[in-house]
Design a protein that fits this description.
By secondary structure, the protein is α+β, with helices and mostly antiparallel strands. The protein is built from 12 helices and 10 strands. It folds into 3 domains: about 40 residues, no CATH class; about 140 residues, no CATH class; about 160 residues, no CATH class. Helices cover about 45% and strands about 10% of the residues. The strands form 3 sheets. A 5-stranded antiparallel beta sheet has the order 4-5-7-8-6, sandwiched between helices. The longest helix is centred in the middle third of the chain and has 30 residues. The chain starts with a strand and ends in a 49-residue tail after the last strand.
């Protein structure tokens, strides 16, 4: 690759990164020749976004490999990849990728404006960059989509969004992001719409259980026993008869213990990780019940909550649900259903007010758009239009009759 350089700072940066600078007499520019060679990880399988029916390739740490993966999926001359540097010391190479004939110019300009106006010494990963360009960092809600899958990134690219690649990071960032994106899996487009919609219902249920189930259990057992069938109430009371601890302490101990087990399973060497999970979840849980520290019903509640949290496709959004459920637990303990209702109201207000690169987080529901496309997928032959809240240059993605072979006599 050959680039023209016009300043000594850019020439020095190029030589420091391993390139060759070619000077030609009488010319006021130098040529940057990419001749460096270094060991790099080859394209492998996705580690954290596993699908059954879909591409088995993942981004690597090399930005040039990642741009080539995008070009292979989006084989079109309208795919624009603009390079820039972030970080005054590291001069980390970033790439802004978008479709010239689809993506809104204002969105592209906003992304480049934010990237060009970051004044930090170093950027070493996409996670660091995400925190510097998101609209509001006060909340734990993710405001950009992060993915290691080039096929998922390409789908968003063709929809009219902007992809940000960071050299040294195997994850790309996608802007803007909406709530619906975080309960969508890259496998949904590869399945029949009936199957994909069923899985979305399961994920919505998983988000609800992760957020509310422990808080509801605490609120019902503390304030609203009349809502429980008599036989179940007797079972809960008898199971807690020998428990000396208050229920809030009991549930917090179990929730924090599970978070410790989850973190330990990630940090220990791979062969030992499953063993940690089995020992922690089974043996310690059974021992806690036998020692009358926690009740068996609470073990079931915590286990269902933990399983539901694993069903959320996006890691960052799952983390937000795991953190927020502690707020619901505390308010459910002190105020019952009133506390949970207040927390839901505030949570919804935050979601309604939040924006991602100027776009509402709850699109297309708030505000409701003219060409309404909600959570659930329509049949593939009815997906003629792109999401209109993105204000793309080309609104149609396929012909009105996308399967003419059916209508040819």
């Amino acid at each position: 690759m050959l680039n023209r350089l016009g300043s000594f700072d850019s020439i020095a940066s190029s030589v420091n990164s391993g390139n060759c600078a070619l000077f030609v007499d009488t010319l006021n520019i130098a040529f940057d020749i990419d001749v460096k060679g270094f060991k790099q990880r080859s394209v492998g399988k996705p580690e954290n976004e596993i699908v059954i029916r879909g591409s088995q390739e993942a981004f690597t740490e090399n930005i040039r490999t990642n741009t080539s993966l995008l070009r292979r999926f989006a084989n079109n001359e309208k795919l624009i990849i603009e390079s820039l540097e972030v970080g005054t010391l590291t001069k980390t190479k970033c790439a802004v990728c978008y479709m010239e004939d689809i993506t809104n110019n204002d969105l592209v300009a906003e992304v480049k404006y934010r990237l060009n106006n970051i004044d930090v010494d170093s950027i070493l990963s996409s996670g660091q960059l995400e925190q510097l360009i998101e609209d509001d960092g006060k909340f734990s809600l993710p405001q950009l989509i992060s993915t290691e899958r080039p096929d998922k990134a390409t789908n968003f690219l063709l929809e009219g969004r902007v992809i940000i690649l960071v050299n040294g990071s195997p994850y790309c960032l996608i802007a803007p992001a909406t709530f619906v994106d975080f309960i969508t899996s890259p496998e949904d487009l590869n399945l029949k719409f009936q199957f994909a919609n069923l899985l979305k219902v399961v994920r919505i249920l998983a988000v609800t259980l992760t957020l509310l189930l422990p808080g509801f259990y605490v609120a019902i057992t503390n304030f609203h026993q009349e809502l429980i069938p008599t036989e179940l109430l007797f079972a809960i009371v008898s199971s807690r008869e020998n428990i000396p601890l208050p229920i809030i302490f009991e549930i917090l101990v179990m929730e924090i213990s599970f978070e410790l087990i989850r973190e330990a399973g990630l940090r220990v060497p791979t062969p030992i990780g499953p063993t940690i999970g089995i020992v922690g979840a089974l043996i310690l849980g059974q021992a806690a019940v036998d020692a009358n520290i926690v009740s068996p019903i609470l073990i079931i509640i915590v286990a269902i909550t933990a399983i539901a949290s694993f069903a959320i496709p996006d890691f960052s959004f799952g983390f937000h649900c795991r953190v927020t459920r502690f707020v619901y637990i505390l308010l459910g303990y002190f105020l019952g259903f009133l506390g949970i209702g207040l927390c839901l109201f505030v949570h919804f207000l935050i979601l309604s007010d939040l924006k991602s690169f100027g776009y509402s987080y709850l699109q297309p529901y708030i505000p409701v758009t003219k060409d309404f496309k909600g959570i659930f997928l329509s049949p593939s032959w009815k997906r003629e239009h792109r999401a209109d809240f993105l204000n793309t240059k080309k609104q149609k993605r396929q012909a009105d009759v996308s399967m003419p072979w059916k209508h040819i006599n």
